[in-house]
Amino acid sequence: MTTAAARIVERWAWAEYGRCRDVPDLFYNADDDPKGLRRRKEAAAKKLCEQCPVIQQCRAHAVGNRELYGVWGGMTEAERHRLAGRARTG
Ligand code: SF4
Predict the structure, then answer these.
(1) N or C: which terminal CB in the chain sees fewer CB atoms within 10 Å?
(2) 76 in a labelled binding site
(3) What is the pTM of this model?
(4) Is any ligand 1 atom within 6 A of the Cβ of residue 55?
(5) How many domains does the chain contain in total?
(6) Where does this protein hold [4Fe-4S] cluster (predicted)?
């Protein structure tokens, strides 16, 4: 493995332990998901995050890298946008 590739693998090592690994669709909304379904998916995803052993690393990644979409580290898109002082676009 090249050094750059090794750095990428190391940078994402925490993700191996995420509770979302087997249910990635729960963590992202489709464009045509109705608002009620979006809210229910976000609530269910956040419950999984609460039990996740890498929630701190995940949240730090999402906030630090300005992840725009999905639930990361127990935070919804809207919550991360508010934290960053941005208006929600999606
Ligand atoms: S905190 Fe949530 S989004 Fe992050 S790895 Fe864990 S389950 Fe997945």
Answers:
(1) N
(2) no
(3) 0.88
(4) yes
(5) 1
(6) 20, 49, 52, 58
What single-letter amino acid sits at 18?
Answer: G
Amino acid identity of residue 19, one-letter, is R
Ligand 1 centroid distance, CA of 71 (Å):
8
Task: Work out the number of other CB atoms within 10 angstroms of the CB of residue 76.
Answer: 21
Q: Binding site annotation covers 52?
A: yes
Q: Which residue type is seen at 7?
A: R
Q: Is the CB of 52 under 6 A from ligand 1?
A: yes
Residue 88's pLDDT band, with cuts at 50, 70 and 90, is low
User: How do residues 26-76 score in pLDDT, each as one tens digit?
Assistant: 999 999 999 999 999 999 999 999 999 999 999 999 999 999 999 999 999
Q: For residue 44, give its domain range.
A: 3-89
Alpha helices in 1-90 (DSSP H): 3-11, 35-50, 55-64, 77-84
